[in-house]
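Section: Multi-chain targets

For targets with more than one molecule, the full set of components is provided together so that the structure can be written out for the assembly as a whole rather than chain by chain. Components appear in the order listed by the source. The example entry contains two components.
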Amino acid sequence: EAGVAQSPRYKIIEKRQSVAFWCNPISGHATLYWYQQILGQGPKLLIQFQNNGVVDDSQLPKDRFSAERLKGVDSTLKIQPAKLEDSAVYLCASSLDGRGQETQYFGPGTRLLVL
Amino acid sequence: TQLLEQSPQFLSIQEGENLTVYCNSSSVFSSLQWYRQEPGEGPVLLVTVVTGGEVKKLKRLTFQFGDARKDSSLHITAAQPGDTGLYLCAGASNTGKLIFGQGTTLQVKP
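Its structure, encoded as tokens over all components, is:
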């Protein structure tokens, strides 16, 4: 079974530029999550989708971050404009239907460096 | 705001030693999960504990959930270099939202 796919794996941009990350979850998984993991910290949830609807985006900085999952399958996360403090690993995860005890399967992440 | 505090943040030990990592919160979670993350990879689930007082064993790893479902511990017996990595605890709500601790970086030297 294929795991969660993310691209690109690495990205270096200058501040004020825009960047987009792509995630393809495990086939059949209704719930998709985007996390931000700053070096030395645990992942922080940015947004949770159930199919193509948003369940939780309370910690998404909406002035510069946006995410969509139009067909309820793959998803993109965009940052525009990027700030230095956005340097982090962006992890995508998916689970079967978003219940509390479910396993979340994580992709390898996209490592972003903002200069 | 729900927070999970892990301790210690860093641990460097010799092969064969035992260790315990703690995860504490002032909030009650519906379940608590432990993950292991290697450099350049995403976290991988080790175990989910659900019931207060629950103990689960996974080979040399023992996980315990506190009676009040606010804290948890991970004990590794006879650590091996292959155990090196970042260990994360995460509290789960009933909507699937995970709150992660800041992680414990474990280095096991041969």
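The interface with chain B takes residues 4, 31, 33, 40-45, 48, 55-56, 91, 93, 95, 98-104, 106-109 of chain A (CB under 8 Å).
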